[in-house]
Structures are given as C-alpha cells and as structure tokens.
Amino acid sequence: MTSVNEGFLSPKPSPPGEIPVVGASPAVRSEPTQPIRHQPLSLSHARVIPLPINGENRSLSEIESNATSIPTLLVDDLLSQTQSPQDQVFIRGNGFLGAYNLTFFSDARLASLSSRLGNDSVNEVVGRISNVVRSRLSKRPESGQNAIQSAVSRNHSVELFTDRVAAKKYIQLYFERVHPLLPFLERASFESIALSNNLDELLTNSKPWVCLYHAVLALGSQYDGEGSFEPCTGKSWKIFAVSLAYFPELLLHNDSLPTLEAMTAMSAFSLSVSCLAIEHVIMSEAARRAQNLAGANFTGRSAQRYSRCFWVLYAIEKMSSFQIGRSSVFVDGDISCPLPRVSEATFGGFDYLLSFLRYARIISRALTFLFCVGVANKPTSYHLETTEQLKKELEDWRLSLPDNGFRPGGTIRPETVQGSVERQAATFIQYLYAHMNLIINRNTLLHLVKSNDQAYSKERQAATSDIHKSCRLIVELTTLIEVEPHTNIWILATIPLAALFVLFDSVVHNPRQPETYSNLALLDMAAGHFSRLEYCSNGTLPGSLISEFSHVARTYVNSIQSRDSVPAGSQRNSVKDTSLLPGSSLQEKGSSNGVSPEITRTQPPAAQDLVMTTSGEQLRTVGEAGSEFPESSESFEPFGGMDYTIDAFGGNISGEPSLGTNVLDLFNNFLPDLDPMLYHGMPEWMGFNGNSVMVIG
C-alpha cells in the first residue's frame, strides 16, 4: 500500500493450494490492470499503476488521473492538516504485538478485567509479574557471566574455540538438527573449511569467518546439552560470545557474502529465549545486508549461497517482526531473488522451506495491509474485507500442506510424525497456522464488535469458533514442544501465551458459555506448560506466575456458579455480589435439553455496565459459538479481550502511549555490558550507561 509496486506483490489469484512466490523478475510480471478507483482498497485487486510501455504515449492528465487512486495512509492525513502539539495522536506499535498485543496489560485493560471480576486479583498477579520483570531487567551479572560480558566488550580478550574434536561434533549436530529447518549454508563448502588444517589461518585473517564459525558451533552445542535459558551462562553462550565480540566490526565491513552468512548464523542463534534482548539488533542488520546485496548480480555457486541466506532471513525476520511488533526491514516490492533449491529442507517430498516462505509472505501482507499504523484510519469495511482476503490466503496455504502430520486440521496428527527434526517441523507448521488463524479471526471480531448490523451474527459465531479451535490446537500441542534452550521464543512462549490470554479473556467475559469448562481445562494445560518451562530452566524463567491466571479464571467461574445456584428472589435481596458487574440483574431461562441456560437482562443496563471506548462509542457483544444474538438494540456483553483494544485502531485514538506490563518480558533480560556495545555511540544521558533501567510497556 505504500508503493505503486504493491500490485506486484498481489498477483492474480493462483490455482487452489498454490500461493504465488514473491519476487518474480519484472519480465514475468503479470500484465498491469487498471487500479482501483474506490475505497476500501481490495487486496485481491491491487495492481501496479499503468505507466507508458513500449513507447506508448500517454497524456500527463491520464497519468495524474491514475495517480489519484494510490491509497492514502495515516501519515498522509497527518501531513494534510495543521496540528498543535497537544493535538498530536500516538499509536502504539506495528504488528500483532503492537496495538493488538495480547500479552500487554495496560491500565485500561486491568480496569476492564477488575470491573468484570469484581476484584483486583488480576492486578495483583500483573503487579507481581511487573516486580519480577523489573528485578530481571535490573539484575547484575554473576562473576562468571560478567567474565563473558567483559570479554565481549573487549574482543581482544576473547578466546577462540580450539577444541577440534568438540567442534566436529557440534558441526555435525548443527547440520543434523538446525540446518534442515534453516538451510542457509552449503554443508560441503562449510565443512571443507571448518574441518581443514587451514582453519586457524582463516580465523586470523577473516572476522566474518570468526563470527560464522563460532555461531555455528554455538547452535550445534545447544543440542549437546550445553545451552542455557539465561544469557551469558553455559558453554553455548561462551562460544557465541566470540561472535558477539566481533559483531561491531562486522557492522563496519562492506557488504559481502561471508558477512551475510555470519549475520544469518548469528540471527539463527538469536531466536532462542536467551537472546531476546539483542535479537532485534542482529536480525535487522542481517536483513539490511541481505537486501543491500540484491544488486550484486551473483552467479553460479555464489548466487545459490546468496539466495539461501536471503530467503532464510526473509522468513525468520518477517516472523520476528510480526511477533515482536516492529516494522520489517525487508521491502517486499524490491525483492527479485530467485528461490534456492534445497533438498535438505524437504521431508518426504514436502518442501518445508517453500511452505515457510509462503507463510512469511502472508505475514508480510498482514503487516502491510492490516496491522500497520498506516491503515489505522481506514473504515471498518476495509478491515473486514482485508481479513477475509487473508483468511482465504491462509486457508489456501493450509490446503497446500501434505496431510501426513504437517497439515493443520488433517487426518494425521503431528505427534505421529517420525523423526525428531520432522516432528519439530510439523509442530512448528501447526503453530504457525493456528497462531495466524487466531490473530486474523480476533481482528475480525474486533471490527464486527464495532458494527451494529445483526446480519454479522453468523460471522461472529464463525470467527469465535475458529478462535477457540486455534487456541485448543496451540495448547494441545504444548506437549510436543521441546522445552530446551534451543527452541525458539515463538514456540516456547509467545504463541502459547497468546492462546492462554485469549482463553482467559473468553472465560472471564463469558463464564456461562458451554465451552467454559473445556476452556478452563485448556488453561490448566497451558499453565502446566509454563510451569514446566520454569522447572526445566531451574527457575530462570518464572513461568509459574502465568499459571495464576488459570486460578483466577477458575475461581471466578466457581463464584458465578455459586451465585447462579441461589434462587432468583434471594439474588435480588442479597448483598453486593462482586463477581458480576454492578447494576445487572440476571435471570436464567431453564433448559430441558441439556443446553446451557440462556442469560437475559431483566432491566436496562446501568451506565456503569457499559464498556466505553475513548471516543465514547458503546461496544456491542460478540457471542460465542452456539449462542443466540438478541434482536434488540440493547447493549450486551463484548467478546473477551475486545473491549480494551477497540480504541487502538479507532477514529479517536488516545494521545498518550499506553503504560503497563508486558508479560512476555518475564522471558527477557537486560545485558548491561552488551547493550552499550550493540548500541555504540549512544551517550550516557540517553540511559545507556548500564547503571539504570527504564521499563516501558
């Protein structure tokens, strides 16, 4: 949407199950068609604006007429008006973990949950999490950790890894466990150097090779029990510290294939939970180098080496950008890199890398057309149309996967897949689908909530059902997650956290739905996963704190059940019941067919019952699957988790950045010696002196 080349990224629909590959050369682009002349913009019709070709002469007025159809963004609206400083608005973040963040508990979200629960139990849990986060981010390193950090700060003190026997084992483990999933190296070429007698000379003369070699060893050593959930501890981190020590020098190197391969290897290691604090620095620089080298015109084996690095970086950088909520470095409209042929990333005829790349492209389209701040001022119809298009693309992607444990919703479960690497890949693919399906359907509900049209009731029910199916799949698959330091942060924490909080919000906002008790069981399973994470990390990652949300939800449902067992007459005469919103008198309609009783209001809602946005817009309810939607225009309960995000992408956005606690920071760390190195040049008055910590939600 930000470039006239966006049509190149939205080609004509492909046959079912085949999603177009990004980056075809200009020679094979589809013929340009006339651009859309009406809003909202449809992704399925976005095209390149026709320009003079083959000597065709066109008048300036024709070109200007076409140019008026280029869609505008929020920045265009901001620049088209004069605003005083106090009128400026602020929109927090890009991506799913920007304004759509499920793991971020703002003051508004806490107030909404407290009002619903009738107590401050969630505030207390989040308060304890906030204290732990602050403690972790201000923690000073132990003596052993400090030795590694000091060595990294002064790379002349770093000792290269010289154990050739161990190195050979780590390289073998790397190519057996890491390479099939992230195949950016050519094994024969790398091993011919890494295992040769000339290695010492190369490490002396080539800083990129020092970084590449030690990053590969660090990745392989994690599969030999040398990894750690905590930064600056363990043998793997000690090896990786050598790469980090020379990273600032790589920043000054000219763009080259060895430099790109080194940064790609470091990016792969940074996907682990121990590198959450520094991942963005390494990943963004690697992606920038990959895009810079696009014009190098590599040929032969060099072209293959480049395309491997480029596309692996594209996939993981798009995923990280989406998960963390930042803008992607890759400009998709400028991509023309051909896809590599990688047999190592093929499992029984299934091209894992190609499927991963196609998914990354869907993520990129979602970031561009749905989750970026540039479309914040688009009408509800635009967002609904866009989500519908993305749903179709996601479903096409799902159907393109083989039904042998890799296809979500297939007849064969992923746990039946043979081989640890294959099973890990199957679990990863299932998680990618479930997470994206959860996000898109949640976004659909977000905008359906803002619509008063009762005709959308089926869409609400379908979206709600898909959300619960996705959460159920995510939680059920936690038993297949390898709770190990080498498992990337998306699988280990980010995606399970998203599912847990969606289930939590659903239970709290809809405690009488038929699915409540199954959702409580799923919450307990998710809580068990995070408790297992704390156990396996020896308390380094305090995941058991997250299990308290399950306890809060179950306690609330029990209180509702106890209140419902009291006769209606006693209810009205009883003292305050803090388990429900004040001012609402509820009456049950019995059912003889086993269906959960329907809850209706016996009096108009009090003013304090209505959840309001910052613009004063009254929220409408989203019902659960199987529930009925009232025909009246009376206000009813919003779907869990929708009330605190409506204003984020609405017409009247808060002028202040949201303050609060991000639960995901439980797995983050502050590296006082590494951060000044990676952010070199920043003065102490900006807070990079390593002595103070500022926590911003």
TrEMBL record:
Superkingdom of the organism of origin: Eukaryota
Region listing for Disordered, in residue ranges: 1-41, 563-610
One MF term in the entry's GO annotations: zinc ion binding
Gene Ontology CC: nucleus
InterPro entries recorded: AtrR-like (IPR050987), XnlR_reg_dom (IPR007219)
Pfam hit, one: Fungal_trans
Biological process, per Gene Ontology: DNA-templated transcription
Domain Xylanolytic transcriptional activator regulatory as annotated: residue spans: 279-346
Family annotation (CDD domains): fungal_TF_MHR
Record carries keyword Transcription regulation: yes
SMART domains xrefs: Fungal_trans
Compartments where located: Nucleus
Entry keywords, A to Z: DNA-binding, Nucleus, Transcription, Transcription regulation
PANTHER family membership: TRANSCRIPTION FACTOR PDR1 (PTHR46910), ZN(II)2CYS6 TRANSCRIPTION FACTOR (EUROFUNG) (PTHR46910:SF37)
Protein name: Xylanolytic transcriptional activator regulatory domain-containing protein
